[in-house]
């Protein structure tokens, strides 16, 4: 069943740790969530996907129902975003922990410089 990005945004806003200021922006029919000025979540009809480093990514993928983000069946799977299991959307404490991990990861990333 497809997800509704606006509903996912409400869940994220409830679950996000208070010390992390999230900003959400429309993105290609979905919503991108940013922490520390860097995108850390994709909210789309596919679900809520978190951007994670390799170790955390592998840990999340071990949870039943988690999968690499793939916007379309013929699109390549993401190497950095993982769709959280649907069950996690109702477990705000667990989701909060994973949102914090994603925010911590993007905080350590070098900003990408735009081409002029």
Structural overview:
- This protein is α+β, with helices and mostly antiparallel strands and 116 residues long.
- It has a single domain, classed as Yope Regulator, Chain: A (2-Layer Sandwich).
- The protein has helices at 5-15, 54-61, 92-107; strands spanning 22-27, 30-35, 38-44, 47-51, 67-68, 81-83.
- The chain has a 6-stranded antiparallel beta sheet.
- It is globular and about 35 Å long.
Q: Tell me the overall shape.
A: globular
By DSSP, the count of extended strands is: 6
* β-strand amount: 25-35%
Order of helices and strands: HEEEEHEEH
* CATH overall fold name: Yope Regulator, Chain: A
Question: What brief labels describe this structure?
Answer:
six-stranded antiparallel beta sheet; Yope Regulator, Chain: A; 116 residues; 3 helices; alpha+beta; 30% helix; single chain
Topology record:
Layout: H1 5-15, E1 22-27, E2 30-35, E3 38-44, E4 47-51, H2 54-61, E5 67-68, E6 81-83, H3 92-107
Antiparallel strand pairs: 1-2, 2-3, 3-4, 4-6, 5-6
Give a nutshell description of this structure:
The protein is an alpha+beta fold and 116 residues long.
């Amino acid at each position: 069943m497809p997800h509704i990005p606006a509903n996912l945004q409400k869940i994220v806003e409830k679950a996000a740790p208070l010390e992390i200021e999230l900003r959400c922006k429309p993105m290609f029919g979905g919503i991108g969530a940013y922490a520390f000025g860097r995108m850390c979540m994709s909210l789309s009809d596919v679900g809520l996907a978190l951007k994670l480093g390799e170790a955390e990514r592998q840990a999340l993928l071990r949870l039943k129902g988690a999968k690499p983000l793939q916007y379309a069946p013929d699109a390549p799977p993401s190497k950095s975003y993982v769709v959280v299991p649907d069950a996690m959307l109702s477990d705000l404490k667990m989701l909060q922990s994973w949102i914090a991990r994603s925010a911590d990861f993007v905080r350590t990333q070098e900003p990408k410089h735009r081409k002029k």
